[in-house]
């Protein structure tokens, strides 16, 4: 069975399902995107990096909101206790000393205005649509599907391991302090992915549930890929920046 096929027969074993989910990551995760390769090879201008940081902030900012929607579907107190760690990781203890604040530090370290980034006014329309689609998915779909959509965290340590050393080596204005956001993320992502994967393995028992889990991870990978497609379309060598979106050439 592959990601585009229907789960057949009596369904998959947990190991078989996990194997398909990991294969989806290998083939669809956005560390394979050309824009990521340009970033890690030092080919992006400062303006292009700024556009990436600004648009990615929209995604970072929605994470605790989508996790709150997942919590709203969960009746198990033990699940809620584990899942709310994700909100604490991003919001911190006061809303502004967690991962979201560290991403703002990255964006301002690249020369962007903090309030402008936080307002999300300069984000691409496609970014806003993608982020809204993710929030809607976690609001409207089943708890199992919403949990499965988070399994891109299985592959997050890989992209961080590629991105951080390359940015430090290729861009002389990027420092370890600017990239502080990424320091705790491999441990946090691995912890969260292990829990979500165990949940999916335990609860995706029917053919329909297994196919829904597969579809959820494909959806999430496609969403992250589409965000980079939009950045490349707008800020590439022959890009077209939509009206109202951040323009690196504007003062």
UniProtKB/TrEMBL annotation:
InterPro entries: Haem_Oase-like_multi-hlx, PqqC, PqqC-like, Thiaminase-2/PQQC
Catalytic activity: 6-(2-amino-2-carboxyethyl)-7,8-dioxo-1,2,3,4,7,8-hexahydroquinoline-2,4-dicarboxylate + 3 O2 = pyrroloquinoline quinone + 2 H2O2 + 2 H2O + H(+)
Leading EC class: oxidoreductase
Keyword set, alphabetical order: Oxidoreductase, PQQ biosynthesis
Entry coiled-coil feature ranges: none
Molecular function per GO: pyrroloquinoline-quinone synthase activity
Pathway linked to the protein: Cofactor biosynthesis; pyrroloquinoline quinone biosynthesis
Residues annotated as domain Thiaminase-2/PQQC: 21-229
E.C. numbers: 1.3.3.11
Example GO BP: pyrroloquinoline quinone biosynthetic process
Stated family: Belongs to the PqqC family.
Function: Ring cyclization and eight-electron oxidation of 3a-(2-amino-2-carboxyethyl)-4,5-dioxo-4,5,6,7,8,9-hexahydroquinoline-7,9-dicarboxylic-acid to PQQ.
NCBIfam families found in the cross-reference section: PQQ_syn_pqqC
The protein, known as: Pyrroloquinoline-quinone synthase
Organism of provenance: Aliirhizobium smilacinae
Taxonomic path: Bacteria, Pseudomonadati, Pseudomonadota, Alphaproteobacteria, Hyphomicrobiales
